[in-house]
């Protein structure tokens, strides 16, 4: 973090918080710009990421679960699914265990679009990670996982005390 104005006078914790804010702003700006270029809203990209991650874990995603995950109303989720299905990024099929529900699946088109959007930032991030040891990266990964977990908990219940 050397070289950033004002960093030397900050505590390590304050430097980490500043770096997290800076990364969040930079990534939000990147996602906004790239999403616009592919005619996708931020919520569309969030929904696609949720479906992609769940699919990679072998889980099925229903519209209700997806609406909860991206924190939008069921009616907004219907519009989002219609938009993404029309664009060829998602498909809907009957739920195998619940006749009243459907399952949302990601398409190859969405995976290709995700690669086009996130491939460049992934490669740039990999280049930065190449400057650190495996042990250092494991520490960063644990830290970021824990920060993400407590942030998700606070998003669900802002009055809840941190669990860590």
Describe this structure in words.
The protein is mainly alpha-helical and about 160 residues long. It has a single domain, classed as Arc Repressor Mutant, subunit A (Orthogonal Bundle), CATH 1.10.10. The chain is built from 6 helices and 2 strands, in the order ααααββαα. The chain has helices spanning about 10-35, 40-55, 65-70, 75-85, 110-130, 135-155, and strands spanning about 90-95, 100-105. The protein has a two-stranded antiparallel sheet with strand order 1-2. A hairpin with a 7-residue loop joins strand 1 and strand 2. Helix 2 (about 40-55) crosses helix 3 (about 65-70) and helix 3 (about 65-70) packs across helix 4 (about 75-85). The longest helix has 26 residues, at about 10-35. The mean pLDDT is about 90. This is HTH marR-type domain-containing protein. It comes from Nocardioides panacihumi. It holds the Pfam family MarR_2.
